[in-house]
Design goal:
With about 100 residues, the chain is α+β, with helices and mostly antiparallel strands. The chain folds into two domains: about 1-50, no CATH class; about 55-103. The protein is about 35% helix and about 25% strand. It has two helices and three strands, in the order ααβββ. It has helices at about 5-20, 30-50, and strands spanning about 65-75, 75-85, 90-95. It has a three-stranded antiparallel β-sheet, with no helix packed on it. β1 and β2 (about 75-85) form a beta hairpin. α1 runs parallel beside α2. It starts with a helix and ends in a 7-residue tail after the last strand. Bound molecules: zinc ion. Zinc ion binds near residues 84 and 87.
């Protein structure tokens, strides 16, 4: 059961992100709320990254991204290192197995 105060806080942030309503006096004081918000923002950022097809930096949204072209396979996932030429941050794209070609 989620803390009702936390629920309300998350909802106000979601409303704010959606542009449906925003509390300018919103302050985050509970560490649990901070963690929940961080998780929410993270999942939002992940979805946004995938929606863009990985073509922009997840940190500064710059489109000048250097892909090293070296894809590594770990189990059923592939890792692909990327670097933003604008903010110099690095991250790893994760690709999952979706099927096969050939007979
Ligand atoms: Zn960047």
């Amino acid at each position: 059961m989620i803390d009702p105060k936390l629920q309300a806080l998350i909802q106000s942030v979601v409303d704010c992100a959606d542009g449906t309503g925003c509390d300018d006096d919103l302050t985050v004081t509970s560490s649990a709320a901070v963690a929940a918000l961080a998780a929410y923002m993270e999942s939002d950022s992940q979805a946004e990254y995938v929606a863009h097809g990985g073509s922009e930096c997840p940190h500064c949204h710059g489109e000048d991204v250097d892909y090293d072209g070296n894809v590594r396979l770990y189990g059923d996932k592939c890792h692909h290192d990327c670097k933003c030429l604008t903010c110099q941050k690095t991250w790893t794209e994760i690709y999952t197995l979706t099927g096969y070609e050939g007979e």
